[in-house]
Amino acid sequence: MKPCPYCLAEIDNAALQCPSCQRWLDASLDSTLNADSPPIVLPPRRTSGLAIGSLICAIFAWGPGSIAAVILGHVALRQIRRDPLRIKGKRMATTGIVLGWLGIVALTVMIGVGIYFRKMFEEQPQKPQTREVNLTTAGLVRPISPRHALTGG
Fold first, then answer.
1. Is 105 found in the same domain as 66?
2. Would 92 be classed as within a structural domain?
3. Residues 24-79: pLDDT tens digits?
4. Is residue 130, in this structure, part of any structural domain at all?
5. Three-class secondary structure of residue 17 per DSSP
6. How far is CA 21 from CA 12, 17, 57, 79, 84, in A?
7. CB 89: neighbour CB atoms within 10 A?
């Protein structure tokens, strides 16, 4: 077994083509390569820091963190789309966006429920208690004074 000069996968010693990257191991068999040119080796891809930040904000910071997760996730996806050979983290950014939107929806529902319950349990001003008064007899009856009560007159 030996490593492939292009992708470093383990291949058979007698293999003419790498089963992982599908490249010919003999430069004379590969029409895309010049026999004098060295093999092309790409540097390892790095994970986007914005994608990591999006996921962390979505998981640990509710409210404003959810908004930050959505923004960071979209910026990370744009960054990955522009340079896919050097930057990875598309799944992380997508997960951060989805969890961020779920956090925004949950925050909106919680605010709505809080406003509903506040209005529901808010004390209403009490109506003044009134009595029904009969106006026809109200002016005819005089209160009895203590002096008249004893003498009868």
1. yes
2. yes
3. 777 666 655 555 566 667 778 899 999 999 999 999 987 889 999 999 999 999 99
4. no
5. strand
6. 14, 9, 37, 25, 17
7. 24
